[in-house]
């Protein structure tokens, strides 16, 4: 575990906000669209399975993007995105549950809720198809257990993307029952990005677990590199939000991508 005083101050601020955030809402009952099915449909159509992220801002970007989130989401889907990710964290990413609601109502692909959930009650902020749980954040906050949160999310109808950064975190995710695993190329301790992270971690992901490469993916060559490392899909945010959204999405989903499962070693 990385101590709080070794974590980048921007990430520590996100952790502190996650610890403090409360949700007063009824228990969610989600009717989820299948993320693995969406990935399979994209591959059958000759597209790389990309989760395109609607991200107004972040600690690693300059300024706030003024693009309407629904318009951005529709452009991503038009460009071939297999699924979407929507930020709902307000303090550091400019997101909201209301934005996710609007986006999910406007598209027919699975929508991931991108937030920093550390307690069960926080799952009830908004209905989504997939929720994110980050191993390192749960380790650092010392709040609800990962396996318990996965179970609680599934009881509500959510699929769960469990984010990891190392082999040790991958083992923790698999031990907790994760069936969709993200490997984040960004080191949350320092906010540095290394695409080699996926190359080191993804080959150890079992074939029956859906794997997603996250962060630092900006070009078709990056897409190919992540596919060759074994990723079944990719989550792309800044590169798509910063460019012509539909055209950038189309360019990335059209990259060369071998069958990820054949690239994994066991």
From TrEMBL:
SUPFAM superfamilies: Ribulose-phoshate binding barrel. It holds the Pfam family IGPS. Keywords: Amino-acid biosynthesis, Aromatic amino acid biosynthesis, Decarboxylase, Lyase, Tryptophan biosynthesis. GO terms for biological process: L-tryptophan biosynthetic process. InterPro entries: Aldolase_TIM, Indglycph_syn_Halo_TrpC, Indole-3-glycerol_P_synth, Indole-3-glycerol_P_synth_dom, Indole-3-GlycerolPSynthase_CS, RibuloseP-bd_barrel. It comes from the Archaea. GO terms for molecular function: indole-3-glycerol-phosphate synthase activity; phosphoribosylanthranilate isomerase activity. Its EC number is 4.1.1.48. Pathway: Amino-acid biosynthesis; L-tryptophan biosynthesis; L-tryptophan from chorismate: step 4/5. It catalyses: 1-(2-carboxyphenylamino)-1-deoxy-D-ribulose 5-phosphate + H(+) = (1S,2R)-1-C-(indol-3-yl)glycerol 3-phosphate + CO2 + H2O. NCBIfam families: Indglycph_syn_Halo_TrpC. Belongs to the TrpC family. This is Indole-3-glycerol phosphate synthase. The lineage of its organism: Archaea, Methanobacteriati, Methanobacteriota, Stenosarchaea group, Halobacteria.
């Amino acid at each position: 575990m990385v101590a709080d005083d070794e974590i980048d101050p921007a990430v520590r601020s996100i952790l502190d906000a996650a610890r403090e955030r409360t949700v007063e809402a009824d228990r969610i009952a989600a009717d989820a669209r299948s993320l693995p099915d969406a990935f399979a449909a994209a591959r059958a159509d000759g597209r790389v399975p990309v989760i395109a992220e609607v991200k107004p801002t972040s600690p690693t970007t300059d300024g706030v993007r003024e693009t309407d989130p629904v318009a951005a989401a529709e452009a991503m889907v038009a460009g071939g995105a297999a699924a979407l990710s929507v930020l709902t964290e307000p303090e550091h990413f400019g997101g909201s549950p209301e934005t996710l609601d609007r986006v999910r109502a406007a598209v027919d692909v699975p929508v991931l809720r991108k937030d920093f959930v550390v307690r069960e009650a926080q799952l009830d902020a908004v209905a989504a198809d997939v929720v994110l749980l980050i191993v390192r954040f749960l380790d650092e906050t010392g709040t609800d257990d990962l396996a318990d949160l996965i179970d609680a999310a599934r009881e509500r109808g959510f699929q769960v993307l469990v984010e990891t950064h190392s082999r040790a975190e991958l083992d923790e995710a698999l031990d907790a029952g994760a069936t969709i695993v993200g490997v984040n190329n960004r080191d949350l301790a320092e906010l540095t990005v290394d695409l080699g992270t996926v190359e080191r971690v993804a080959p150890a992901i079992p074939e029956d677990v859906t794997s997603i490469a996250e962060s630092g993916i900006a070009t078709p060559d990056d897409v190919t590199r992540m596919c060759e490392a074994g990723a079944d899909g990719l989550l792309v945010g800044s590169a798509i939000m910063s460019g012509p959204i539909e055209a950038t999405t189309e360019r990335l989903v059209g990259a060369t991508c071998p069958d990820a499962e054949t690239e994994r070693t066991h």
